Amino acid sequence: MDKDKKTSPDKSSQQNTYDETKLKTLQSLIQEGIDSGEAEYSYEDLMEETDDDLVCSINF
Questions:
Q1: End-to-end CA distance of the chain
Q2: How far is CA 19 from CA 3, 24, 25, 26, 50, in A?
Q3: SS3 12
Q4: pTM, whole model, 2 decimals?
Q5: Pairwise CA distance, residues 17 & 11, whole Å
Q6: Distance between CA atoms of 8 and 6, rounded to whole angstroms?
């Protein structure tokens, strides 16, 4: 085995802990999104609002 490619147990353990933390955070955020329900969304309203913001910023 190439000695340069060895990973120390401490680094491997730290990486596993980091990965587990990221996974738990992702799972929690996904569940939060599911629990929040559906949002009312209108593409047309979004585009109108964006256009209004653009026009206001150009007029200043």
A1: 66
A2: 24, 9, 10, 10, 38
A3: helix
A4: 0.49
A5: 10
A6: 6
CA distances from 23 to 18, 53, 54 (A): 9, 37, 39
Instruction: Tell me how far apart the alpha carbons of residues 36 and 28 are, in angstroms, rounded to a whole number.
Output: 12
Side-chain-facing half-sphere of 23: CA atoms under 13 Å:
6
Taking only the tens place, the pLDDT of each residue in 15-48 is 999 999 999 999 999 999 999 998 888 999 999 9
Distance (Å, rounded) from C-alpha 6 to C-alpha 4? 6
The label of the residue with tokens 């200043």 reads: 60
- CA dihedral for 41, 44, 45, 51, sign (positive or negative): positive
> For residue 4, which amino acid is it?
D
